[in-house]
Amino acid sequence: MRQAVAVAVTKHRLDSAVLQKLPTDSPVVASLGAAIASLPTYQKAFADAPPAFTEVGLRYSHYTEDSLDKDLLVFGDRDRYDIDVTQLWIEAPVGGAWSVAFDVQNDSMSGASPWFVGTNLDGEPGVIMSGASIQDNRVEVGVTTRYFWADGNAGFNVTHSDEDDYEALAFSFDAAWNSDDNSRTWSASASTSDDSVAPVKEAIPVFIDQEELDTQSLYFGVSQVLTSTSIVRVGLSYTISDGYLTDPYKLADQRPSEHERVTLNTGYRQYFVEAGGALKMDYRFYNDDWGTDSHTLEVAWQQSLGRHSLTPYLRYYSQSQADFFSVIADTSTDFYADDYRLSSYGAITAGLRGTVMIGDWEVEGQLERYDSDNSFSLYGGDAAPGLVDFWRATVGVTLRFD
Q: What domains lie within the chain, and their CATH numbers?
């Protein structure tokens, strides 16, 4: 996978490691009853007791981007990324106060990547693609150990990711602790990643041999029981990256060597007893020192069907463009980029997730559609050619046993 995509994956991994350490299962959620405790977003972070069972899971996802519109193509292959992701994990209690988890993920990807934005015969912006198909494979391995005590828990994680042109080693620590009346839980985490970028010299010329990137992230949040069937959470994270942040596979790309991000997350869960379902609402505000703001709003309904569940969801995303973004990069300035991911755009995601329990087995399936467009954005800015639309499908099985 190319470095720009790898940076995004690393950022996502670090942010997810921080944001997922949110109060969920402990006495706080237990006080809401089993229905609330079963909600996925409030499930893993803090049970204040080691898991009662060993859990083994296998999940497969296929991600495929729509081909580039032929009217936007100046040169190259219209076909874009196809990615197959396989995940395997195991979590088990150890003694009376510990748990250990091991997970491994393999990403296999191919497709063409935008090289730069030029103009077509009509003088309109168009994309020059990489031409030759990109083939890459990424393997990520992580180990987490967690200690539980009466009023909270703490965990330590080590993750290593390796691919043809990118290697990352990340560490994270998180802790959660409950109030005396078990109605409130605080949580905090810190993570760091040491990454190495070594671009593959193929059809696209690149001008570096190897560069380094360091990323650190901090998170603090609180979850509060409101009623016997509702809970709310809020969290704040800060992330800073220092080092090589330019995309070496883009002809016109020169980015600052430092990137600071602040994210505010809120969430609300309300269980409706008579309906046997729960309303889930999440909002995320993001701001960085490259001039980008973004908003993410997600609404879902989780319907219990006996031991099974069905969850339709809808997500809206909008961001402003980075200060140094231009549809056709201006190389006369210190920093410049024509990367559509730094442009102003919006996106709508619709999805459906279902789980079926068969004895001790849980079978899951998920289908998601993502569409993006400059006109979906809450912000102004020039439309970047080559925004991505994609499908993502997931199937998985999980076994729990003594």
A: 3-401 (2.40.160.40)
